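Colleagues,

For the teaching module next term, I've prepared a clean inverse folding example: a structure given as tokens, and then the sequence designed for it. I'd like students to try predicting residues themselves before seeing the answer, so please don't circulate the second half yet.
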């Protein structure tokens, strides 16, 4: 197991950013949360005027053995079909990625079936996790490999100039897995976390809650140990997502979190590499009930709330426009002095 050394935030850069923001041609604090975003980015990047040159979007795909328990409205082969669609540029995340001129990467770490051709990177560890209601989802080695692959694939993007990261996913069944992960880490009752996912019935919803509850009673994962939680009730793509987040945090690169699955991965990343959460902004508030519980646990507030619940990284990619606005503001606005504008009467 690696020790991930996440650097401390530069609190002095935050203070300097606040002082500089207060000199810009506007009433103090009048740009609200945009100013808070600037201050957060300043302490992440260590500069009072943070810049973001290039967004990177990395999507990890994998299947989940827990689908055997009838917890999804869609059949398992939809994971593969969605990856094919994404590889052809037809998914929502492709659209928003193009809008943001993002560097895009799609990585298979555990989809059932043969290797993909074309734009999908084949880093398959195994074909789906095991059914975690019956046995452990993964071996310890598989967890470590998934985290390492996520870490490596993020570094590939950073080498291409990416300095802000969105981490998305594809995987039928992964809201059930995320519910188990967040329940394990927070100690919450699964009934508070489990949602309707891709559109299950009320009967399936009750069943899904019971599946998660029974799995946690069966495995008794150690809430302090992200590796243990992933091994017992995790997902291959969620482990890879956590690895990518750890790579970003270790390199002082901001992470824009998406919805429930992304935030579950963030909870794991923070468990494995303390301080990783300091490099995360929360893009949006998902419709999934567990999302709010997960981001409150991490101490985050969403930038937007658009009733989205697709996943893939879509909410984070849309929110990036607002982050860009904050960065442009601090770098391009005039100060009272440079513009020759009179300041506030004392």
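(Answer key — instructors only)
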């Amino acid at each position: 197991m690696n020790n991930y050394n996440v650097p401390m935030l530069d609190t002095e850069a935050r203070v300097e950013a606040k002082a500089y923001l207060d000199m810009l041609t506007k009433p103090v604090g009048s740009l609200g949360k945009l100013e808070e975003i600037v201050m957060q980015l300043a302490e992440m990047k260590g500069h009072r005027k943070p810049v973001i040159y290039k967004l990177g979007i990395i999507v990890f795909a994998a299947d989940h053995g827990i689908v055997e328990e009838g917890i999804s409205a869609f059949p398992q082969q939809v994971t593969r079909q969605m990856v094919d669609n994404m590889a052809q540029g037809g998914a929502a995340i492709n659209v928003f990625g193009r809008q943001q001129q993002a560097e895009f990467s799609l990585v298979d770490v555990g989809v059932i079936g043969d290797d993909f051709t074309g734009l999908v990177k084949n880093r398959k560890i195994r074909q789906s996790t095991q059914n975690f209601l019956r046995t452990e989802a993964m071996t310890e080695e598989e967890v470590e490999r998934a985290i390492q692959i996520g870490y490596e694939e993020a570094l590939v993007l950073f080498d291409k100039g990416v300095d802000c990261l969105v981490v998305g996913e594809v995987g039928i069944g992964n809201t059930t897995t995320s519910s188990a992960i967040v329940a394990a880490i927070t100690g919450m009752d699964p009934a508070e976390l489990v949602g309707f996912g891709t559109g299950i019935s009320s009967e399936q919803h009750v069943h899904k809650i019971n599946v998660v509850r029974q799995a946690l009673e069966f495995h008794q994962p150690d809430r302090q140990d992200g590796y243990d939680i992933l091994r017992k009730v995790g997902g291959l793509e969620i482990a890879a997502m956590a690895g990518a987040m750890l790579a970003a945090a270790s390199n002082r690169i901001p992470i824009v979190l998406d919805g429930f699955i992304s935030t579950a991965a963030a909870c794991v990343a923070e468990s494995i590499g303390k301080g990783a959460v300091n490099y995360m902004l929360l893009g949006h508030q998902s419709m999934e009930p567990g999302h709010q519980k997960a981001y409150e646990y991490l101490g985050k507030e969403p930038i937007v709330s658009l009733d989205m619940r697709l996943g893939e990284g879509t909410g984070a990619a849309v929110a990036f426009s607002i982050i860009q606005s904050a960065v442009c503001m601090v770098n391009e606005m005039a100060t009272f002095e440079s513009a020759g504008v009179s300041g506030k009467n004392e």
